[in-house]
Amino acid sequence: MAIRFENIKEFIGSRVVWDDRGDLFTPEAAAAIRAKVEERTVVVFPELNLTDDEQLQFTELMGERQRLTGRFNKQEVENDDVYQVTLDPKINPQPEYVLGTFFWHMDGITVDAPPPFATLLSCRIAPDKGGETEFASTYAAYEGLPDDEKADLEGLKAVHSVKASLSPIADAIPEKHRDKVLNIGLVKEHPLVWTHESGRKSMVIGTTADHVVGKSVPVGRALLIRLQEWAAQPAYSLRHKWTEGDFVIWDNTGAMHRAIPYEASTGRMMHRTSIAGSETVAA
Q: This protein's superkingdom (predicted)?
């Protein structure tokens, strides 16, 4: 198998190198890439230039394809399993959920299904300024905590909601549909520490986490913000500056991500697919 991996940072990120582009589209390569995503959290394919059909094929080689698309998008793609991540008002007339991605989050935390295992993102238009994507490994961040702090987190649960994740931009949502936008999805309780079937542990944090069960709101929110800051420190995080054609896969069950803010006028366009998860969040 003529593909190789190069670590980007000590605790997070690998870059894929290939001799022949076709070598990536085999079950053997897909299994190796999936294993690397689980090990390194983020895997980058520089300037791979996938078509939508190739991205869908790649997604299916790695696992079960899951549709996570924007309910308001007027898509310009043939298959709605591909979601166009954009602030272009012709495609996305209600941009609030994309604007919410400017803040640390994990996908699928407020739905009644296992969170997606992985997200796959292709860059179609790279903005001149802004629009980079940052990733923070909540596996590595948990492993790096002192033992006494790990013990303090065991058994704690946080309450998650879309309303919490959009609170930083709530004032910018038009009043006529603000309540509808803020109240989609479910209110879910998840353990702060997710013990995976593999035995590894990650943290379930990000802006969907509103407060901690059994703690006062100020104390709980201060803890959640501190854990975000801990996970986002340079040792455990990675910023990817997009070039047109780049393709990135990350483990959504063990990472937060966010976009560096950009304006709609930059034209930034990403095509996203998702791989279904098989594990519910478990303590």
A: Bacteria
pLDDT digits (tens, 9 = 90+) for 27-53: 999 999 999 999 999 999 999 999 999
Kindly state whether residue 75 falls inside one of the protein's structural domains.
Answer: yes
Q: Measuring CA to CA, how many Å separate 186 from each of 94, 130, 160?
A: 20, 31, 8
Phi-psi region of 243 (alpha: psi -120 to 50; beta: other; left: phi over 0): beta
pLDDT tens column, 270-280: 999 999 999 99
Q: Distance between terminal CA atoms of the chain?
A: 38
**Domain presence at residue 233:** yes
- Cα 257 from Cα 133, distance rounded (Å): 7
Kindly compute the dihedral angle of the four CA atoms of residues 138, 52, 259, 268, in this order, to the nearest 10 degrees: 170
Alpha carbons within 13 A on the beta-carbon side of 37: 24
Number of domains in the chain: 1
Q: Is residue 217 part of a domain?
A: yes
**DSSP category for residue 261:** P
Q: Residue 258 maps to which CATH number?
A: 3.60.130.10
Give the integer Cα–Cα distance in Å for 199 and 277. 16
CA 265 to chain CA centroid, Å, is 24
Name the residue range of residue 85's domain.
3-275
